[in-house]
């Protein structure tokens, strides 16, 4: 349980001053991060601790999901700065039956009062997100009538529910081949075998085959997991990239052909955006494959991958 926050209020009646103190806590039945997945049933409890009796006309619980984005770009003419901004609700629930034992003008006695609640999250909600450009937030708000007596806000995290275990193309290994031709050193080929879908906390193997006709010296191979973000509002869009993690390989034999094995542990990240109509924040991922040469320009290629919510039950890596 979170530490209670005590609030003191003062009222005047016939020149007498009355003081009442209360604490309101909103507890979610979730993991330690307060996270849920789209499509889940969220459960929790509102706890009111009253030091003396209180009279309320009503108390409501409101669930809100809000998505907002804002950025600017310079322009060559007046007004010289264009503003891109939008705000929209992706979730709005008003629950009046949580405090159903409160009739109009009810008096709650001093003590501790527990009010369980539950509500369903739609399956197509976007994940909680926060950047300098956009935010997606979810909250539960408690408010009484009269409003000055009780106000409390608690946030919770939502992750998109992505499961691809029924789709064979995401369960089997994939092969991607890339080439580079040197002016005086022949052709260089790299073939990357890996999986194209995975969940956070899974370890992804890489089998890299190199064909190095002229035995060009290689400094390292770097494979980075890149999060690609597209922000869309009614007046335009913006793009952003974030590097989530990377894996490197440096031990080369400099044979004409060689095989390299290494792994990448996927961190706790937001799943890819799927089955959401017109998202303000669209999340996708790529593996960025780089072969770094000390005396030549690097070879760089991207391959699309998908981050799911449920661990992917991959076929054998053979």
From TrEMBL:
Coiled coil, from the record: none
Segments forming domain Arrestin C-terminal-like: 184-312
Record carries keyword Membrane: no
SMART domains for the chain: Arrestin_C
Gene3D superfamilies: 2.60.40.640
UniProt-listed SUPFAM superfamilies: E set domains (SSF81296)
Gene Ontology CC terms, in alphabetical order: cytoplasm
Pfam annotation, one family: Arrestin_N
Keywords: Sensory transduction
Protein name: Arrestin C-terminal-like domain-containing protein
PANTHER family: ARRESTIN DOMAIN CONTAINING PROTEIN, FI21816P1
